Request: fold
Amino acid sequence: MTKTQAVSFSRTGGPEVFDYVEIDLPSPSAGEVQIRQAAVGLNFIDVYFRNGTYKAPHLPFVTGKEGAGTVTSVGPGVEDFKVGDRVAYAGADGAYSAGRNVETRHLVHVPDGIELETAAAMMLKGMTAEYLLNRTFKVGPQTVLLFHAAAGGVGLIAGQWAKALGATVIGTAGSEDKIELALAHGYDHVINYKSDSFVDRVRDITGGKGVDVVYDSIGRDTFPQSLDCLKPRGLFASFGQSSGPIENFTLAALAQRGSLFATRPTLFTYIAARQELIDSAKALFDIVQSNKVRININQTYPLREVGQAHADLETRKTTGTTLLIP
Reply:
């Protein structure tokens, strides 16, 4: 049994509920490895657990689902990983810590040539972009798409990836700086949602046809307008709710707007099978190593300052990806 530093909360609420604490770190159990974390990724799902939108399995709770580090010990029966391996993961609760045990079913090997900090910054966001563009809707050269929060962590990756797939890529952002950032990362058009109607602008850009698919992580503030951007039989992919949950959704709204489709996907369903996780991570590593997708680590915070990081994320002060450094 050793000790490690971690961030936990014992009650839900704002960023002030976090406590920087020392916790016990037992030896890894069967099927686990222990890792020394180089960096932890910050994601909006962490906010949802902290504020109670998603229910924590127990309290106190160490949140965080994404990180990368080096294996320091292995539990009984582990064969695919050894001490010294560089590894990364997404989907394993407890990331807000300097050291931790992780079930190997969540882990992938980080290829040579990709820094651990980069891996920590891109696993959850990058595999989200992967499944959205390759599996939720198969994006290709004929696709015209709308991606909200274009300058966010998923948005910057998705814009570059979609452009590499040959799509026409439309995004939304809330400031001139964010618009310029998105335009530099694959987007053909970026709409300022604060000053313009993104529905009207999408109709203008597409000659009144609408888009094939809308990727929406905003939720309440962009609904039902996102539906109004779609062409008949288009797909509404709602994969987050940073502005709050969508309310008063009716199936009739899909019929009225042209036999639309709607889905509420999550990464963790798309990588639940071990081979799907491996394939998704490989696709992500490959496109990053091809230099078609650049990972932007635009903010870093010491782990003990996670409250400030959450505050900045929630007030949309951040762009690209954010790391917490233990």
About this structure: The mean pLDDT is 96.
